[in-house]
Structure formats: structure tokens, C-alpha cells
Sequence to fold (716 residues):
Amino acid sequence: MKNIVKRTGTRLTMRVGGVILLSACALTMVGARKTPYGHLDKAAYATQAIIDFLRPGLVITVTSGSIAADGTMSVAYTLTDPAGLPLDNAGVFTPGTISISYVAAYIPASSTQYTAYTTRVQTGTAGSFTNGGTDTGGVLTALGNGQYTYVFATKAPKGFDANATTTFGVYGRRTMTAYGIPNNMASTVFTFVPSGGKVTHVRDVVRTATCNGCHDQLSAHGGNRRQVELCILCHQPQSTDPATGNTVDFKVMVHKMHLGAELPSVLAGGTYKINNTDFSKVEYPATSSHSDATATSGFRCETCHDQKSGATQAANYVIPSRAACGSCHDNVNFATGVNHPGGFQADDTQCGQCHIPQGQNPFDASVKGAHTVPEDSDLLGGVQIAFTGVVNGVAGKAPTVNFTLKDKKGNALPYSSMASLTFVMAGPTTDYGYTSFGSNVTTPGYVTESGNATTVTCSTGGACSYTFTHAIPANATGTYAISFYGSRVAQVLLAGTTKQKTVTESPMNTVTYFSVDGSPVLNRRTVVQTAKCNVCHYSIELHGGSRRNVELCIMCHNPSTTDSPVRPNAVVAADKALPNQGVNFNLLVHRIHTGVNLAALGSSYTVVGYQGSHNDFSTTLYPAMGPTGQPTETRNCSMCHVNGSEQLLPVGKNAVTDPQGRINPVQAVTGACTGCHADLATASHAMSNTNSLGESCAICHKSTADFSIASQHAMY
Fold:
């Protein structure tokens, strides 16, 4: 009997003998049954019959590891599907052959990092190097029921330390492309002490879950290395990139990759490459908008070194070493003392004398002090604005908004403490963009007004109010919104010292909603949340740092907004000759995050910004990784979206102005989808399914349809 599985669109077709089984792959079909598959798994959209046949997925579980007295290393493990049913690595009794690789390493008693037992010689233009790697030529034994043992060809050397922490890494690939789904990848590690003692000496600095905040599914080398705990077995001081001669020690490599374009060596005209992949243009997303995140201006180390991750050594980043510190400060030569105020350092023993974990003041020589981003300093007074109500918030009247102005300790601030404060009004919340607040308002769909010492009144207790000069339109209905942005008068920190810094501080923008016609208040739909953005960006601080909340962003970056106010002042002459660029929020954010993928789609995205600046986002490298480990993967919409909003097509919302787009104006659903799917074919497809009655996208792409958004974005 020949079994064949084919995929047509998102529909899985399986022929078992002479019987054909079809799967519509709709979300509602899997919602009624318990499934071990997530929304990004292709299997989540198949029928139970197909699941029972294919049993997609791969789980590797190590059950034991040992090193015999003669150095023979052995590992026992099981191969199962996500439901716990055994898999056959030969692909005879279950679909898909499974290839497994093995790594063995230990932590010497005198070291804090691994040394590999399993090595390989790699040769490149920089020379030949013995690096940590996989074992080859060992003996694999199938015990049945998904159980296997592997005896390494590599032996631990004579006199090996049986009391040393030892880790076996096991990773694999299950070949499933013949059945119309991607290959399944998995990796795991098993840590033990060969003598049978308790594991106490560990390397546990950064956890995979923290990396996955930005990388979605940390993947490398084709996609089957998926854990930091596995990476560090080979990526330690022992290993060198044969193509460049650069170390691939994890702490050094990762620091340099993430700092990328801001490395002193790169700023001086150099490059940073590993295996001929250039990381010199990488921009770390958790930077401050007020100061560059260079190695000398402050860096938010705890974005990766998350103190809440559960890693037992999460605080290790405050322990200085030449290798770790020199990875970012790569213009420092510790051997000669060049660019190091402390002079040359023959080893790491003296580092902690000057660079203690934390000093009494920010910006000092302590590890935390030296990496303090100015806007994060505890010395700042803080500024907090909270709305307390809206008066005259009805159609045809100019509303008065009441709010409190306080510092971070809750003390009242006089209005004179503010350098600027601008109020924004938009509506209705059903969809922003096409409301006119008067013939003298040039901003489409919203109005901004700047407060000053005369128009903003504040009591000594910090209770303030501002009355708009523009009225709510007389024909307005529904719910409107008011927000603000601004900054406190610059504060001078550590005045009169060599560490003096002048810092501008901006309050978090809040939004207040109010009904203009007596109808129930309806807040603007929540599609993304600032907290989601801040997983990667730490704290979004745009337009000079004063716009920090997505709820405010969408009021101005609405469907009718373009860069028209600043394009005539473009500093790049070619920008002046081009049409305006649409900057509706979903178009803007989708295009920015799609970044380097745009060229392959025959598209680009450049916005003229403040003072005519040229902002080309076509080189933005989105950090999310796909099934094979490549970044720029944009199919996991839930990284940004909340409450399944990515599945809810914006049917009936306002058309989007997109003068440089393939369609202008573009209907709401098409505008959202073509933000990422920016190719000509998709635009043509959308046009052919849109007429004077509207878009028909929901027929095929709603959550219960064959080509639902979820099923089309599934990638594993």
C-alpha cells in the first residue's frame, strides 16, 4: 500500500491505499480537540486522520548519560512526537527519517566555561582550528519503542575528571518535506557528573526563553540548534571561526553581533564577520532614542541578562573580564593598555578592583554605572501625567482636559518644569483618519495644540487643565480620544563633575476616551500593545523620545497620514521628486519590520522625517528566526499582536493613503496585508478581489476559512 500526502494551498490531501482524506485546515476544526501543536505548526490545521498517519513533530528526551572508566561516553534517549508516541529514526514504522547529532563537553574545575570533548578541525582562509563540534562514527543502537543509545566514537581523555560537570547535547532533524510539511527540528541537553555526584558547577548565564523574546524561536545552523544551553557547548573560548580568525566564544560573539553597527571598530571603518556573514549593520533594538547605544554611551545589558529569567548566574554580567568587556569595547587593547585608563592587563585578576558590580553613582567605572543609559538614571526626578477627566467633551464644543502633573515620587510639579507639552485629539475610535477639526488644521484626522504657561493652569497640588481652541466637529458621533506628548526641562546630573550629563525626560503618554454624543464609550480597538513592543525595544521612545505609547502613535499614524508635511524639506534631493510616503501605523510597522525582505519583493520603504531626514527602512533586520534559523521571519504575528488580533481582518475600516504604494488609496485589509506581502503579485491578487462593494478577503482568509491567516502563517 502506498501512502501519499499532498498539500494544495493549506489543504492537506492524503491518499491511504485507495481512500482520499481531505483537510480543510480551518482553525475551528482543531479547536474542538486537544492538540499538542501550536498556531505556528502546520499540523495544527490538519485533520486527526492525517495527524494519526504523519504524527508530525520531534521531541528528544535524554534519559541518561555516562562516561566509563576508560573514557567511553554513552547517552540514552527517546524519540517521540509531541503527544509522546514513539518515533522510528529509520522512518520505516513512522513517517520521516530522523538524523541525530551528538556533542559532549565538560566544565573544568578551574574554569567557568565548557571545553568540548567532541571536536573537529575546520579550515578556512584564516587557517585551521580545532573547534568544538559533533561526534562522528559512534555506534547507535535502536532498543525499540522509540528508545536509543549512542556510544560516542570520541572518548574522554585518559585521566578525565569524573567529578566535572559534563553535558551531552543531542539535536536532530526529522525529514518531513515529502509529506508537504516542513522538517521537524529539536534539540536538548543532559547535564550530569560522571562519578554520580550532584551538579553544582554550572554555566547558566542567559536562558533561551529570554533570547526568544526577540528571536521567536532561537535557531542556528539550519534550525536544529535551538537552545543557548546547547550553543555554549561548542561556542566557548576553544573555538575559532576559520573564515575570519575571530573567536566564536559565545559571550564575545553574541556581544559583538548585537552591538554590530555601534562597535568602535565598525565606527572606525571596520567590519565584524563570522563565517563571512557581516554583522556590521546590526542595530540593537533595545537602545535609547536620546543617546546612541555605543559601547561607551550606555547599554541595557539586562535586556539579555534578564534578572527574572531564572538563570542561576544571571548576574554574572557584572563580573568584568577582558574577553567579555573587550567584545563591545573592541578598540581597547588590554595587552598594551591602549584606550584603557587602567593601563595594560595581563589577566583578569585586577579588573574587579576598578570595575566593581555597582558603585554609588551612575556613569562611574562600576559595571552597572558604566552601562547606565542616561534616561534610566535613578537621579532623574521623573515626570508623570495622568488624566482625571474631560469637560465639554461633546460635539460642537472645545473640550477641557484635566490632568495631574507630578514627579516619580508623587510630588506636584509646576508647569514651568515642562519644556514642552502638546495635546492630541482624534476620533472617532471606530477608526481614525478622516475627521476634520477645521479648515486651519493641516494634520489629517487629528489636531495637535501646544500648551504654554498661559493656556495650562495648574494648582499647587499638581492639578492641571487645558482647553482646546479647536472644537469637536459639530457632526461628531461616538467616542473620541485625547492624549499628549512632551518633555520635562532638561535636568543636569552630577553637575560640575567629569560625568556631568544633561538629560531630557519624557512622560509616558496616556490616552483618555470620552463619548461626544452620549453613546457608550468605546475605546479604540487594541491590536498591539506597547508592552509587546518593549520586549525587544525595552522602551519605545520615538520622535526625540516623547512618543512612548502605541495608543498615541495610532492617533497620528492613521490611514490618511503621509510624510507630506516634511517631504518638501527632504535633505536627499531624490526624495523631493518622489510621491509622499504613507505612514499609517500598520503599513509603517509592517514595512519597517519586513525591512531587508522588501528588495526581494521588488519594494522598498523610505520615510522623510524630522527636518527632512532620509529614513530608509529597507535594510532593517528583523530578529525573529524562522524554521531554518534565518532572521527576518515575519510569520509569527503574535510577537507583536495581542488577543489574536492578527486573525481579525480590519473589514470596513478606513482606506489607507499610500501614494508610493502599488494601490492608492488601498483598502484596509489589503493595506494591512501588503505591508509585509509587498510584492506585485499580492497587490494584483488583492485588486482582483476588490470592487466598488469592498474587499472579499474574508471569504478565503477569515479564521474559519481554508486559507485563514493562521494557517497561511504556520511555518513549522
Observations:
- Residues 250-259 form the longest helix (10 residues).
- The CA atoms of residues 320 and 351 lie 6 Å apart.
